[in-house]
Amino acid sequence: MKNYNSITIIHEDDSLPLFDDNTSLLSPLPNDKTVNYNPHPQDHLAPPFSASQSGDASNRPSSLLVGTFNLIATIIGGGVLSLPIAFQKCGIFTTTLFMLTSAYMTYMSLITLCYSSRRCGGSSYGEVVRSAFGERMEEGVSWLLFIFLLFVIAAYMVLIRDIWTPLVGLAMGEEVDGDRMLMGIIVVLLPFLFQRSLHALRWNCYIGFGSILVLCVALCRGGFQRYYYQEHYGDDGQNGDDGDEATTAAASTTDIEFFKVPTVQDVLFSFPIVMLAFLSHFNILSIQNTLNRPTRQRMKNVTGMAIIASCSLMYLFGLGGYMLYGSKTQGNVLLNIPIAKIPDEDMEEYWLFLLGRIGCGTTLMLAMPLLALPCRDALLEVVDVLFHRSHHRSDSSDASNDTLFWKMLHKLNRNESIDDAAITTEDEVDEIVMDEDITTPERKSPLMSMSPGRNSILIRKDAIQRDWVFRNSMMHYGSTLMIVVCCYIGATKVEGVAEIWSLIGSSLAFLIAFILPFGCFIVIENGVEGSDRHDGWIKAAAAMLVLSIVGAVVCTWNRIASM
């Protein structure tokens, strides 16, 4: 049996009587098909499913629409700007296969991560990993997510600076300092960066989706229109001189390759870009934690609709950019789009691309808080583990035993209550594990059907984001400002976003998106007995786990070799 130090361990012999003797957790509810009841009461949800009907909208405030757009906005971000280069490297057919494969694998990994959290009671990515592999892995994965998201936020800052600096300079008629421009944008975004939930950022999601749609329309309109004119009239439809900038900036039909046979290097370059564009796993459990009536089917609906919408938009974005610029496509498609009006350029096209650039900049600005939130949560989860390790009820009878660090946090917390001053691990979470020598069915946990291979189940009344460490105002504001400052410093020290994507795309993204979710699902699902166990999904997850490990090793080796 693993040694869990930071959470109270409840063995099956002395488990808490969380339910009445006449209540069977595994028995079906009266109206199994009605969405107002949980058709799978064996799932462990935090907040519980009943919070949807408690009358307190703060428990689970998000509808299907809000949850779907939260996930769409998490997926569609800076990575979409590099999709046209993937089409240019591998051709339309091969990149289409990459997009469909990445979309399907992302859908499966998101669903398996949600299923794993419902099996084990974990309300965060780290807690799911804890249930499968132990407390130390929870700390390690939380650090991994924190560092990964720091790089991503820094990359977003670089993109925001590179997009808005020339736009503001064009409007003011003079050169603008990019770093100062970025600092001003960050100050404007601070109220959004301090938000505590995805539901509070739902308007960011709506506006961001509509904004990136403008640039997508501009690329598709320009690309397909130019391709049509070149196919039927032998020119680009601009009626300009052969040597003007508008013509040379565009693709010719000979540049567009539908069935290109890519080299191995091109495949290893393009697939991580496509896969990274779908990365959203750090927010999926927060969406589940706030979704109203979070049945398994509703989470499938949220995930499926978000993946379909995101894949469709990103595919059209990448294809449109490639059709427009062909072999001249750059790693960031915005580098292909001139900021100033080109002589003889169609005015409608110029304004559409200008609005598209503004829309893209707006999308990235509004998406940055969606990344800062899980980055902060990952850091605070590490602190939360340390807090739980030292604050068991049996060890906390005397508040004077607290270390200076915890005393300072209590003192500086402006929202501190009487209960918070004496809070212990048991007030927030309990953990049920099974002794290695317990194998008989009579001694199984009354909370869930378990086998000896099962690691642990977390019992929570609220999601981890409601723990004292997360609610502590000093930790909340201090960690947010630290993240913003670190990312700003990093963004001002690099020349372009490609340097950051190259560091995180080949290895960390594979690990977070596929390897850990599939590995946790296999371990946790193997501990489930009875008809609720998904044997087919276990085999599919094992196959995708092997493919993910191979892909991560090959792409990482290729990235290191190319440096």
Polypeptide structure, described:
The chain is mostly helical. It contains 18 helices and 3 strands. Strands 1-2-3 form a 3-stranded mixed sheet, covered by helices on one side. Helix 2 packs parallel to helix 17 (508-525), helix 4 (135-172) crosses helix 15 (473-493) and helix 6 (202-233) packs antiparallel against helix 11 (347-390). The two termini are 44 Å apart. Mean pLDDT is 80; it is low at 10-34, 237-248 and 436-454.
List keywords for this structure.
three-stranded mixed sheet; 563 residues; globular; 60% helix; mainly alpha
The helix/strand order is EHHHHHHHHHHHHHEEHHHHH
Helical coverage, percent range: 55-70%
- Counting helices, strands and paired strands, the structural category is mainly alpha
Rg calculated over all Cα atoms: 25 Å
* Tally of DSSP helical segments: 18
Gist of the model:
With 563 residues, the protein is mainly α. It contains 18 helices and 3 strands. The model is unreliable at 10-34, 237-248 and 436-454 (pLDDT under 50).
What topology emerges from the helices and strands here?
Elements (H helix, E strand, L loop, with lengths): L7 E3 L53 H12 L7 H38 L4 H9 L1 H38 L5 H16 L8 H32 L11 H5 L14 H14 L3 H10 L5 H30 L21 H44 L13 H9 L5 H4 L7 E5 L22 E5 L7 H4 L1 H21 L4 H7 L3 H18 L9 H28 L1
Parallel strand pairs: 1-2
Antiparallel strand pairs: 2-3
Helix pairs in contact: 1-6, 1-9, 1-10, 2-3, 2-8, 2-9, 2-10, 2-17, 3-4, 3-17, 4-5, 4-11, 4-15, 4-16, 5-11, 5-15, 6-10, 6-11, 8-18, 11-15, 17-18
